[in-house]
Amino acid sequence: MIPAPLTSHVWVDDPHAVVRRGMAAALAGEFTIIGESDRLSPPPDLDRAGVLVFHADGPTVGTALRLSSGRPTRLVATVRRPDDARLHELVAAGVAAIVFHDDLTPDMLLDTVRSAARNRANLPAEVLPRLLERAGRVAPAAPGALTQRERDVLRMLADGQDTRAIAAGLCYSERTVKNVVHDVLTKLNCRTRAQAVGLATRAGVI
User: Which of 22, 78, 110, 124 matches a 20 to 30 Å C-alpha distance to 147?
Assistant: First the structure.
């Protein structure tokens, strides 16, 4: 049995040492940096890392997904060339968050890793419209029968709203929202809210 990692422990991956050290420094005030790597070499210790911030260009995506499979580690993907296919791959794979390098600031990185540590999806504002446009160009595969209430909650998740905001917006209790999200994740066989949003978007159901 794999022990649950501490969500306050973060592993930072980036091919550029200066960028990597800058990200580690930005996070160190609030999180414990347990290691660094260049294109996931050396392999991150995901038995201890609650969050893996990794460089998501090239083959590292598949490696990160393979290493994190079966573990509760949250994945934060940093992307230098955010083409639509790569964004779709990351969202469908269930990464907790995506950060564009061109927009990256210390505060943004810290906020993003905070959200990931709390198991909240965090996507750049432009990602959802791009995924919706891409979904219109590919044949959808329905992920499952979703109720209207489940679709409403998914739409608000896609807008970046958290449990409290969704509860207020739909006049539900927070417990009800959590139950609806749990049902959606179960129906769609998803690990994270971001993955559920990606699959529902791709299928054209939200």
Answer: 124
Could you give the maximum distance between any two Cα atoms of the chain, in Å? 48
The pTM for the full model equals 0.65
CA 182, CA 177: separation in Å to the nearest integer? 9
pLDDT category of residue 126 using cuts at 50, 70 and 90:
confident
Task: State how many domains the chain has.
Answer: 2
Cis peptide before 42 (omega within 30 of 0): yes
Ramachandran angles phi, psi of 37, nearest 5°: -150, 165
Q: 118 and 145, same structural domain?
A: no
C-alpha distances out from residue 135 to 65, 124, 165, Å: 23, 17, 27
Residue 60 and residue 36 in one domain: yes
Q: Give the domain extent around 55.
A: 6-124
- What is the sign of the dihedral through the CA atoms of 182, 188, 190 and 193? negative
Integer CA distances (angstroms), 111 to 20, 50, 61, 68, in order: 17, 15, 22, 22
